[in-house]
What we know:
The protein is elongated. Strands 1, 2, 5, 6 and 9 form a five-stranded antiparallel β-sheet that branches. Strands 13-12-11-10-14 form a five-stranded antiparallel β-sheet, with no helix packed on it. The protein has a two-stranded antiparallel sheet with strand order 3-4. By secondary structure, the protein is α+β, with helices and mostly antiparallel strands. The chain contains three helices and 14 strands.
Amino acid sequence: MAVNRYDDTRAWYAISTYSGYEDKVASGLKERIDAHELDGKIFDAIVPKEKSIEIKNGKRKVVDRKIFQGYVLIEMCLSDETWYIVRNTPGVTGFIGNGTQPTPVSEKEIQKIKKRMGVEDPKYNINYEMGEVISIIDGPFKGFEGAVAEIDSQKGKIKVMVSMFGRETPVELDALQVKKLQ
């Protein structure tokens, strides 16, 4: 490690972590900031998350999902001291950058990430077309196939025509309960 080869200006950096350890690394970094009195050198550590809709046991839940698995964003002034503190935090595998030189994340990217994190209501992403044959993967009709008859993007619902007892029956499903046929 060469002395003072870093630009000592405040910027955001991405650090890689072991997958699943992002929250532990962020809280560990915050504890180290306090312990080493680095308030003016390391400012914040965040795990970018967004709200997402999941179906578990037939019930819809809004959960926080990590935007970038295995990464934590840290705002700091990069110096030999701060590099060493961050790099030696348990769970950190390294900085993202060119070779051994960490590369700051652009302010434009940080703003996009923060905007994405600030969205309260998750959006429904329905990539199905009318008449498309899909497979039902959850709920009482699991294992059935049917054709998309109606799409309600606002509510995240799809009406599927399922063949039961020799006739087509409409079944309303959550968009997360179906998937495209391969």
